[in-house]
Amino acid sequence: MKKFTQHTGIAAPLDRANVDTDMIIPKQFLKSIKRAGFGPNLFDELRYMDEGQPDQDCAGRPLNPDFVLNQSRYAGASVLLARENFGCGSSREHAPWALDDYGFRAIIAPSFADIFYNNCFKNGLLPIILSEEQVDQLFKEVEASEGYQIVVDLERQVVITPAGDEFAFEVDAFRKHCLLNGLDDIGLTLQHADDIKAYESRRRHEAPWLFDAIHN
Amino acid sequence: MAGKTLYDKLWEAHLVRQNEDGSSLIYIDRQILHEVTSPQAFEGLRLAGRKPWRIDANLATPDHNVPTTERAGGVDEIVDPVSRIQVKTLDSNCDDFGIVEFKMNDNRQGIVHVVGPEQGMTLPGSTVVCGDSHTSTHGAFGALAHGIGTSEVEHVLATQCLIAKKMKNMLVSVDGELGAGVTAKDVVLHIIGVIGTAGGTGCAIEFGGSAIRSLSVEGRMTICNMAIEAGARVGLVAVDDKTIEYFKGRPFSPQGELFDKAAQAWKELVSDADAQFDRVVEIRAEDIKPQVTWGTSPEMVVAVDGTVPNPEKESDAVKADGIRRALKYMGLNADQKITDIKLDRVFIGSCTNSRIEDLRAAAEVVKGRKVASTLKQALVVPGSGLVKAQAEAEGLDKIFTEAGLEWREPGCSMCLAMNPDKLGPGEHCASTSNRNFEGRQGFGGRTHLVSPAMAAAAAIAGHFVDVRDMMSQ
């Protein structure tokens, strides 16, 4: 997995609550059997005026000029500023894949939906929860000043504004450790293979109906 | 010491190890796989040279992409080439790794959350995961079940475990007696209207109270299915005699003496009387009327006799903005009566409402009536091949087709429109599915979530009507 230590980047404000994963990446793009290439279809229905199709070249499609990521001042944005309950709905990991493929490294919001939040960490994308007031302040500052850059320091667990304001955020120790070191979860879990086997032999005795039941 | 909740018990029974950093490893008894969220997980296994930890914990079936029209020609005749590749990829992955799969034309194929319990793959007291957020459905049987992303699908395939953090305990208690014409779907939509689409974030919600206990197991599945629309990954209902009865004689259920032994253990799967919940919400069953969503989030819901909200009356600026945006997308006016919303299509199906009881409820309403001539289409899509066969044995298919509804092959269909069943731009649909997000059922489509009986009544009238009025006729 991609490491995340410290990141500085242009912030883009997506000012709506309850942004669902259908909105982040619409269903027709979920037919891909790959992990990469979802960036051009990130927020497809908000970003373009027409209906997008899988494997379509998006270069010639009509853009929605009102959509924030289509505004030149937010070109190259890598920190997404969002509202409450970001990433609700479907469990599709294609949502963080699309955000990552587009170039986002961190998302700041007052709250995230659980499955999306979890999926981000598996892809080197950092979801950051700040208070409503802090997020409001960032929205105001981003909209007021072109080229507004945010620093995210995972080691110190702070978001730093251009004026030097520091907002601390929480992150699970395990997730932080994995992100800082770019560690693969499966490899880590398999270090505990003996524990898993011990659990299975105990469980097989307690609840034998949960074993060897599914077969042709 | 306080007693334990059902969730506490399930968590403790599956705890493999507690790490020093606060994370835990929990054991997963069952994984269901479908074609959309598994290909990258299988690819990951291959790239790392790994094999599934336990083959017999997995079951696969294609559901999201499959056509629901005549499909005797098999996978090769799926018209959309991208869908075809995805279904074929699931077939070849399952063949390569030896995983049991109900392929498209197997009569046991269907929507993962209908098939799992139907086969006795899901069992009380088990942990169940799937790369699909509606895995919360299986909690209706006292199983700890939740949706996961594709990286976690791979993690479970490779290790039979998940790295997890314990959720909070929330109880939603619905007490009293539900009125005639008020169904499980109305109960859960009402709950989401009360607690909001993020009301259960970070929690496992146990649904309790006399109204929940009085529901059939299928009704409980509808409730738990939509726990995720209230933000909770996990929905739960305590085990009772109805739960245990349901699993008798199912193909993957224990049989004979082993069943009796399992049933003894399952009886413990209830929250202790003195269990402590982090949050409790109490709802009176008598307050619940048939529900209709008017907006683009499941929390944007009102009773059928209500009106579309007015953003001018909302004091919270972000919420008022959300209402305005939703009204614009939905093509509705503030203060408009719900019963004045005209419909273009009706969809009866999805993991929320495609089981036999749902189809019976819809058939009862349309029997001897005709679909409104203004409707472009009314679809009935059973949740599995076995549900379809059962419905046909009861003659429900005839009732539907005589009334002018289309009777289809099983799959997810128009719930998320990954197959050819979809809404056109601007079309209003009365749908028994679970999400009314923008574009969910088709680009520019406008979804209204309702119960099967309400969808059936809307199909007859061409606009929303209170199904209770039709029942008295």
TrEMBL record, chain A:
Q: Which EC numbers does the record give?
A: 4.2.1.33
Q: Which residues form a coiled coil?
A: none
CDD domains, per the entry? IPMI_Swivel
Q: Which GO terms describe its cellular component?
A: 3-isopropylmalate dehydratase complex
Q: Any keyword Amino-acid biosynthesis? A: yes
Keyword annotations from UniProtKB, A to Z: Amino-acid biosynthesis, Branched-chain amino acid biosynthesis, Leucine biosynthesis, Lyase
Annotated Aconitase A/isopropylmalate dehydratase small subunit swivel domain ranges read 1-132
Please indicate if the UniProt record lists 4Fe-4S as a keyword.
Answer: no
Annotated GO biological processes are: L-leucine biosynthetic process
**Which transformation does this protein catalyse, written as a reaction?**
(2R,3S)-3-isopropylmalate = (2S)-2-isopropylmalate
Q: In which pathway does it act?
A: Amino-acid biosynthesis; L-leucine biosynthesis; L-leucine from 3-methyl-2-oxobutanoate: step 2/4
Q: Which InterPro entries match?
A: 3-IsopropMal_deHydase_ssu, Aconitase/3IPM_dehydase_swvl, AconitaseA/IPMdHydase_ssu_swvl, IPMI_Swivel, LeuD
Q: Which NCBIfam families match?
A: leuD (TIGR00171), PRK01641.1 (NF002458)
Query: What is known about what this protein does?
Result: Catalyzes the isomerization between 2-isopropylmalate and 3-isopropylmalate, via the formation of 2-isopropylmaleate.
Q: Which family does it belong to?
A: Belongs to the LeuD family. LeuD type 1 subfamily.
Assembly, per entry: Heterodimer of LeuC and LeuD.
Protein name from the UniProt record: 3-isopropylmalate dehydratase small subunit
Question: Could you tell me which species this protein originates from?
Answer: Marinobacterium lacunae
Name the gene behind this protein.
leuD
TrEMBL record, chain B:
Please state which protein family the record places this protein in: Belongs to the aconitase/IPM isomerase family. LeuC type 1 subfamily.
Any note on cofactor binding? Binds 1 [4Fe-4S] cluster per subunit.
Q: NCBIfam families from the xrefs?
A: leuC (TIGR00170), PRK05478.1 (NF004016), PRK12466.1 (NF009116)
Q: Which Enzyme Commission numbers does its entry carry?
A: 4.2.1.33
**SUPFAM superfamilies linked:** Aconitase iron-sulfur domain
Q: State the superkingdom.
A: Bacteria
Name of this chain's protein: 3-isopropylmalate dehydratase large subunit
For this protein, the record's CDD domains field holds: IPMI
Pfam families in alphabetical order: Aconitase
Write out the GO biological process terms: L-leucine biosynthetic process
PROSITE patterns found in the cross-reference section: ACONITASE_1, ACONITASE_2
Start and end residues of each Aconitase/3-isopropylmalate dehydratase large subunit alpha/beta/alpha domain: 8-462
Q: Which organism is it from?
A: Marinobacterium lacunae
Alphabetized UniProt keyword annotations? 4Fe-4S, Amino-acid biosynthesis, Branched-chain amino acid biosynthesis, Iron, Iron-sulfur, Leucine biosynthesis, Lyase, Metal-binding
Q: Which GO terms describe its molecular function?
A: 3-isopropylmalate dehydratase activity; 4 iron, 4 sulfur cluster binding; metal ion binding
Cofactor(s) required, per the database record: [4Fe-4S] cluster
**Pathway this chain belongs to:** Amino-acid biosynthesis; L-leucine biosynthesis; L-leucine from 3-methyl-2-oxobutanoate: step 2/4
Q: Which residues bind [4Fe-4S] cluster?
A: 351, 412, 415
Lineage of source species: Bacteria, Pseudomonadati, Pseudomonadota, Gammaproteobacteria, Oceanospirillales
Q: What does this protein do?
A: Catalyzes the isomerization between 2-isopropylmalate and 3-isopropylmalate, via the formation of 2-isopropylmaleate.
Coiled-coil residue windows: none
Catalytic activities? (2R,3S)-3-isopropylmalate = (2S)-2-isopropylmalate
InterPro entries assigned to the protein according to its UniProt record, in alphabetical order: 3-IsopropMal_deHydase_lsu, Acnase/IPM_dHydase_lsu_aba_1/3, Acoase/IPM_deHydtase_lsu_aba, Aconitase_4Fe-4S_BS, Aconitase_4Fe-4S_dom, IPM_dehydratase_rel_enz, IPMI_cat
Describe the subunit structure: Heterodimer of LeuC and LeuD.
